[in-house]
TrEMBL record:
<comment type="similarity">
    <text>Belongs to the HAD-like hydrolase superfamily. NagD family.</text>
</comment>
<protein>
    <recommendedName>
        <fullName>Acid sugar phosphatase</fullName>
        <ecNumber>3.1.3.-</ecNumber>
    </recommendedName>
</protein>
<keyword id="KW-0378">Hydrolase</keyword>
<keyword id="KW-0479">Metal-binding</keyword>
<dbReference type="Pfam" id="PF13242">
    <property type="entry name" value="Hydrolase_like"/>
</dbReference>
<dbReference type="InterPro" id="IPR006354">
    <property type="entry name" value="HAD-SF_hydro_IIA_hyp1"/>
</dbReference>
<keyword id="KW-0460">Magnesium</keyword>
<comment type="function">
    <text>Catalyzes the dephosphorylation of 2-6 carbon acid sugars in vitro.</text>
</comment>
<dbReference type="InterPro" id="IPR006357">
    <property type="entry name" value="HAD-SF_hydro_IIA"/>
</dbReference>
<dbReference type="GO" id="GO:0016787">
    <property type="term" value="F:hydrolase activity"/>
</dbReference>
<dbReference type="Pfam" id="PF13344">
    <property type="entry name" value="Hydrolase_6"/>
</dbReference>
<dbReference type="InterPro" id="IPR036412">
    <property type="entry name" value="HAD-like_sf"/>
</dbReference>
<dbReference type="InterPro" id="IPR023214">
    <property type="entry name" value="HAD_sf"/>
</dbReference>
Amino acid sequence: MERMRILPKGWKAYLIDLDGTLYHGPRMIPGADGLITALRAKRIPFLFVTNNSSRTPEEVAAHLEAMGISARTEEVCTSAVAAARYIAQAQPGCKVAAIGEAGLTIALKEAGLQLTLEEPDVVVQGIDRQFTYDTLTRAARWIRGGARYVLTNPDLLLPSQEGLMPGAGTLSAAIQAASGVKPTVIGKPAAPLMDFAIARVGLEASEVAVIGDNLHTDIAAGVNAGCGTILTLTGVTTADNLPDYVKSSGVEADLVCRDLDEVRARICGSGE
Ligand SMILES: [Mg+2]
């Protein structure tokens, strides 16, 4: 890959995407366990950063551990936890209506926010596999009535064992149509999820690099947050479609690695 550069100096921590980067559904991507082990051995800080709002950090860590990737709850940043923190900081003590699953409602409660189904100050929405016409009606009325609208992540579709599934962004399209309001977006490609993760590692954005498989989400979020970026050809992007994705996303990664062994060699040095 002629675009590859020498690893820029000064990257002290890494924000690592999950689906398509470390695993595909229940299956670990080769080298994922070795990458995390090497980061720990070198005492290089890292966090797992995911747009998925349905799982709690505990569940995400357990999922990683089950497939052989060492992970701790406090190393997981989800769009739900970042959304909860964002709302708690922007409007402390506000009343929040949650449209989402356990990962979102638990994050909101842990951030000290008050959940309500009446006259919310904020409507926060993630993926909700129980979403109904009634949910849509209430969301549209609340937002039209002046509630702020926050979206955990704008993903339109998600891969699953059975095929593509509508994501939080698809539900949001209906809410936007009915309410006439565009949400504040927390997850990738927007910056707030990355800002949250950068604050958690306690470094400047320029000292942190995002590792992910998708130019439109991971790499764009890294660019938007002011981080370095490493693209792995383990998921959405392949050597063949890379030029098309660069064109359609309008972003390029600082470093492109064909697999996770190459990522490990670049950021941890070769060998273990
Ligand atoms: Mg991914």
